[in-house]
Specification:
This protein has 173 residues and is an alpha+beta fold. The chain is built from five helices and seven strands. A hairpin with a 2-residue loop joins β6 (144-155) and β7 (158-167). α1 crosses α3 (42-56).
């Protein structure tokens, strides 16, 4: 199966309806740090937070767009530590785009961006252990599972076991 065609554009106000649709998906909320339930107009808050942090380089967010202009999901760097050369990456795929290899392609491109554009020396993912589909994406994108962080605070008093996955620029793709 060939990789889907995906390109990134900086997350901006024009993506608010697409982000709102993602946030309305219970599976997305379940496996992300988005609050449950999301407050009104949370999509705008998410976008504004990424736009503001873009200015100081502490995080970055992209809309993942298909060849036909279809919104496929989000490619996120929720935490960038430029001094340490490390960043957390994340991906969220729209319901209609799931099962087509989109998540893996988003993560591959996001990882290349982190290494090539930012000069990162380590990229990592924090994945709920109850989300095996996301762990398979990490593995397909060349990430190595380092272990499980037990009872990590995720959101609103919710604690979960999360797997820590990482990739270095020297790791095979």
């Amino acid at each position: 199966m060939s990789s889907p065609i995906v390109h990134f554009e900086p997350l901006a106000e024009r993506h608010v309806d697409d982000v709102a649709e993602l946030i309305a998906d219970p599976e997305v909320v379940r496996f992300t740090r988005f609050p449950e339930p999301p407050p009104p107009d949370f999509a705008r808050t998410v976008i504004a937070n990424y736009e503001n942090a873009r200015a100081d380089g502490s995080r970055e967010g992209f809309a993942a767009i298909g060849a036909d202009g279809e919104f496929l999901g989000l490619a996120l760097a929720p935490s960038i530590d430029r001094k340490a050369g490390e960043l957390e990456l994340g991906y969220i795929v729209a319901r209609a785009a799931r099962g087509r290899g989109v998540a893996t392609e988003i993560l591959r491109q996001l990882t290349r961006w982190a290494f090539d554009e930012l000069g990162a020396q380590r990229a990592y993912l924090i994945i709920d252990v109850r989300n095996p589909a996301s762990e398979r994406v990490a593995e397909r994108a060349g990430y190595k599972r380092e272990g499980v962080m037990r009872s990590v605070h995720v959101k609103q008093g919710i604690r979960a076991d999360t797997a820590l996955w990482s990739r270095l620029p020297s790791d095979p793709g």
